[in-house]
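Input/output pair, single chain:
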Amino acid sequence: MAISIQHFDEIRHLYLFEQLVDNELDRVLEHATLINLPSGSTLFSQGDDCRHFYVVHGGMMKLFRTSADGSEKILELVGSGGMFAEAVMFVGKYPVHAVAVEDTCLFAFDCKDFRALLHDNIELCFRLMAAMSRRMHGLIDEIDQLTLHSGSERLARYLIDQLPSNIKHAPSIRLLVPKQAIASRLGIKPETFSRVLAKFRHDGLIEVHDDTIVLIDAVRLGQLAS
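Output:
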């Protein structure tokens, strides 16, 4: 399904497309499509040729690698508005598996056409490299969060990051993926995840109701995450 003009503003603000002038973005959209994936469907597998990069229009994608024993290591959970696989267009093959965690709608952008757009436009190449550099620094900060902080600090930060910008009293967060998947994403064992969650509940920071977490004291939780 082709992308309509109504999606222009949604896509325009994304870091990669902020670097494009309107006629350049129009060209990219002409070669883009809208695809729907049922929950559990595989978008691509590790080692597949990279033909598209993606933006999540709605739903959630899980990016992961598998070990020799078949266990998963989740590298990223990409929700609405998130972009992924954009850097892979310069490499050639996807380094991870991508699977829909729930029914998901994606914008798919043609890598070959995007590279052609860059080929004769040195100025755009430099704008793009600057944007990707800023993105890389953000990922380095995220790695710091995963390697230099305790499991409690990582989980506190994850919960705080799920909050809407207009925080209200005792806001609720619905966990859109299994707790085991979140634990894998945060680099902690599932039993550690459960133990930290129980401690937060015991300390009066949160309440847990199935897949919904109510932040009773977001301020104290934020202090723990800092």
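Helices lie at 8-12, 22-30, 111-119, 122-148, 151-161, 179-186, 190-202, 218-225. The chain has two domains: 5-147, 150-225.
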